[in-house]
Amino acid sequence: MRSMKSIALALALVALALPAASSLAQQTAESQAAMTPRAALQRLQAGNARFVANKSEPNDWTAKVVATASGQYPFAAVLACMDSRAPIEIVFDQGIGDVFGVRVAGNVVNDDELGSLEYAAKVGIKLIVVLGHTRCGAVKGALDGVKLGNLSGLLDKIQPAIDAAHCTESSSDSCVDSVAEANVAHSMAEIRARSPYLAHYLDEGKIALEGGVYDVATGKVRWLEHR
Ligand SMILES: [Zn+2]
Question: Is the CATH code 3.40.1050.10 the one for domain 2-223?
Answer without folding.
Answer: yes
